[in-house]
Amino acid sequence: MMELLHRFYFLALILFFCVAGCLNDKALSLHPDEKYTEQNAHGMIRASRKTLAPVYAPLAEQIVSDFDLSEKDGIGIDLGSGPGTLIVELCKRTRMHWINVDINPNFFPNFYRQAEENGFGHRVSAIFADAHSLPFRDNYADIIVSRGSYHFWEDKVRAFSEIYRVLKPGAVAYIGRGFSRNLPVKAAKKIRAKQGKKMQYDVNNKANELYNIMNELGIKDYRIDRSKPPGSENVNYGIWVEFRKTEENVHIKGGG
Ligand SMILES: C[S@@+](CC[C@H](N)C(=O)[O-])C[C@H]1O[C@@H](n2cnc3c(N)ncnc32)[C@H](O)[C@@H]1O
After folding, report:
1. Model pLDDT for residues 117-158, shown as the tens digit of each residue
2. pTM, entire model
3. Which of 42, 195, 237, 244 could crosslink 221 through cysteines, CB 3.0-4.6 Å?
């Protein structure tokens, strides 16, 4: 009898540590660390209104045209949307509901205000979450986009596997940094000049990193997008990856 009781306590103890471990893991990933402050959010909001202001409308236009979104209903997620300017531009061009998912909730009051002012308050949501652990069920989103955020994700393979998991079968993700190919060269040059050395990175290395992530996860249907307009040879337009959750490849390595 005593031995049975000991075994019971031992099992209960193991169960307790497992549950505590899971909760702790979740809690950790949901608490913004010191980088994600109000000051940080305000800095990015300022940049989105000044230096980066010309970026969002062309990017939204390209996304809507490439993925045929103008008549589509459903849910779009902008992961690491921050100020949410891209979402407002996407709302102007689609009928979809857009969710700003960001690890820094200090962006949200400004985001909601901006959406309200543009008449889209009823078509947006904001969720405080970490790209590594998305609080959505499998096969939830009709599209996931992200600009200028993925290079902050510590475990990119895990975050991309989360994106894949949350996409509906057949749905697409467009994740990257920099500009869309329809941004006029003059505007792109002006932005890069203002950003100075901060945004100098080797695009070939970044492309390799994205290839490796796709390969590691076993994602077959993807395209690295480095397209840019004529005359932009010396201008860094950034790098993007477009990938689709195929009906026959719903489960991938490491998640999904
Ligand atoms: C440079 S800002 C870009 C904001 C916005 N996408 C834009 O283009 O204006 C990077 C954003 O990614 C968010 N971010 C960084 N790490 C994240 C993570 N692990 N999960 C979710 N969001 C994250 C930051 O809080 C910030 O809003």
Report:
1. 999 999 999 999 999 999 999 999 999 999 999 999 999 999
2. 0.88
3. 244
